[in-house]
Specification:
This protein is an alpha+beta fold and 193 residues long. The protein has helices at residues 4-10, 31-40, 46-64, 80-100, 102-115, 134-140, 149-159, 185-192; strands spanning 16-19, 71-76, 118-119, 122-123, 127-128, 131-133, 160-165, 176-178. The protein has one domain (4-192).
Length: 193
């Protein structure tokens, strides 16, 4: 649920989002520590509540041995509009480059997306969630998309207040975005029209 689309859609209704880029393990959230802290200090700042949720979630995952692929982040939804605009610019720049030279651009972009942190399974056996970490995707495309990739990284810094991740998710930046795996010229033509 920690996606740019969820953040953008929740922004008019809330100030913060606490969500995971990866599917959460069956042990779920560890409610006792952060609710105890909130009970002891009901005036606690919202960002601190989010940090406590993240920390207790990771601690709970560690206790159950499920922390390997864990991710959880606190997103400042007031900054989601700027990130969404940067993500749209990223897509526009990618489409323009693909339209100019599809045979060069798509293989390069596809390889960078495949090497980026992705979530929810993206194989024939696990199914395709098509979710890629925005920061890792942008970092991997700094040379290919030099006008928009830095804007995503800068916007993510403003948007993500706090995050935790397990050892197998070290490239997690806090929010993911949709990437169509297996894109080809036919798919691209549908997007271009």
């Amino acid at each position: 649920m920690a996606t740019i689309d969820v953040a953008k859609n929740f922004a008019p209704y809330s100030n913060y989002l606490v969500a995971s880029e990866e599917t959460e393990p069956s042990n779920g959230w560890n409610y006792t520590p952060w609710l105890t802290a909130l009970g002891a200090n009901p005036a606690m700042a919202t960002e601190q509540i989010g940090k406590n949720i993240c920390d207790s979630y990771l601690e709970g995952c560690q206790a159950y041995g499920t922390a390997g692929a864990a991710t959880l982040s606190v997103t400042n939804l007031k900054a989601a509009g700027k990130l969404s605009a940067a993500y749209n610019d990223f897509g526009q720049e990618a489409l323009k480059k693909a339209a100019q030279d599809i045979n060069t651009f798509l293989p390069q972009y596809g390889r960078s997306a495949m090497s980026s942190e992705n979530y929810g399974g993206n194989t024939p056996n696990t199914g395709y969630s098509n979710m890629v970490d925005l920061g890792d995707l942008a970092s991997n495309n700094l040379e290919l998309l030099p006008n928009s990739a830095p804007k995503i990284l800068s916007s993510l810094e403003d948007c993500i207040v706090y995050k935790v991740n397990g050892p197998y998710r070290q490239k997690s930046h806090g929010l993911s975005g949709f990437y169509l795996y297996g894109i080809n010229e036919q798919n691209l033509q549908g997007y271009l029209t």
